[in-house]
Amino acid sequence: MTNTANSSAIACQVISVDALSPGISKVVLRPDQTTDYSAGQYLQLVLSAEDKRPFSIASIASSKLLELHIGTPAGDSWSSAALTHIEQQFRAGMPVMAEIGLGQAQLRQESTRPVILMAGGTGFSYVYAIAQALSAANASQPVFLYWGVRHEDALYYLPQLQQWASQHKQFRFVPVVQQPGANWQGRNGLVHEAVLADFVSLEAYDIYIAGPFAMAGVAREAFTEQGAHREHMFADAFAYI
Ligand SMILES: Cc1cc2nc3c(=O)[nH]c(=O)nc-3n(C[C@H](O)[C@H](O)[C@H](O)COP(=O)(O)OP(=O)(O)OC[C@H]3O[C@@H](n4cnc5c(N)ncnc54)[C@H](O)[C@@H]3O)c2cc1C
User: Fold this and answer.
1) If exposure means fewest CB atoms within 10 Å of the residue's CB, which of 18, 58, 94, 99 is most exposed?
2) What residue's CA is closest to ligand 1, atom 29?
3) Which atom of ligand 1 is least distant from the CA of 56?
4) CATH code of domain 115-240
5) Mean pLDDT for each 10-residue chunk of the chain (241 residues)?
6) Is-contact 195 1, C-beta < 8 A?
7) Cβ(149) to ligand 1 under 6 A?
8) What's the pLDDT at 7?
9) What are the domain boundaries of the chain?
10) What does pLDDT average to over the chain?
């Protein structure tokens, strides 16, 4: 499941912890040594030798800093324990330990097929890194980024993505809100259903998926029925379901 070649833990200084939206935090880390990873890979935050928690890396390797988006929904202890650990180390001026550059769902740089990036919630972190890498490589194929959230206040990078789409004609951004408020003007429903509605066939596409495991599983089946090839669908969640 994971790429163990890169799995020794590295000390990372906590540079900042900021709220992105209610229940979602942006964490910026600076590794104490040079790290190499591919867009779309994740790190494991080491809480103890037995307790390591995966978070997608929202940044790309050229940035030198690691950006994470950590969702802590009410009642969730899995990610809130990780965030609490990061905040404690930050306050104490101590580093956190992380295994960096894990996973098999990274961007296939060599592919020239059109790309669909589909995120549910904080799965956005993963697709954001891939979108940045495609942009940095001046990739010319069409890129469609679908971001599904329950409520529109979770679209924490909405202005950046809208601006990006307005500046790159091959880049299309489609936010999809599951339970929209009265003022929401965009698409609604489940994000994978928006993808299914927009593409008669998914046969030609490389499809990158991150978000709740249930979403990844439903999407894999539905996309396959709509022509997607399993070898062209990428998600680290597939290793868990
Ligand atoms: C390798 C790896 C990396 C991870 N990285 C991160 C990370 O960077 N940050 C983090 O916080 N957690 C991470 N996790 C944990 C986990 O994947 C996330 O907690 C999860 O994706 C968070 O979803 P959410 O609560 O934001 O989405 P939700 O708010 O639950 O859902 C968002 C949207 O997803 C779709 N969706 C949700 N459920 C379904 C369903 N049952 N059927 C169809 N569509 C559905 C809908 O469109 C919905 O609006 C990671 C886990 C792994 C294994």
Assistant:
1) 18
2) 121
3) 8
4) 3.40.50.80
5) 59 98 96 94 94 96 94 85 96 97 97 98 98 94 98 96 93 97 96 98 98 97 98 96 88
6) no
7) yes
8) 60
9) 4-102, 115-240
10) 94
Q: Which atom of ligand 1 is nearest to the CA of 148?
A: 47
Q: Ligand 1 mean position to 109 CA, how many Å?
A: 25
Tens of pLDDT along 123-156?
A: 999 999 999 999 999 999 999 999 999 999 999 9
- In single-letter form, the type of residue at position 23 comes to G
Whether 148 lines ligand 1, by a CB cut-off of 6 Å, is yes
How far is Cα 174 from Cα 117, in angstroms, rounded to an integer?
10
Cα(105) to ligand 1 centroid in Å equals: 16
Judge if pTM exceeds 0.90: yes
| The one-letter amino acid at 89 | Q
Ligand 1 centroid–CA 18 distance in Å is 20
- Determine if ligand 1 sits within 6 Å of the CB of residue 175: no
In CATH, the number for domain 4-102 is 2.40.30.10
Predicted confidence at residue 74, as pLDDT, reads 82
Among 154, 157, 97, 98, residue whose Cα is nearest residue 127: 157
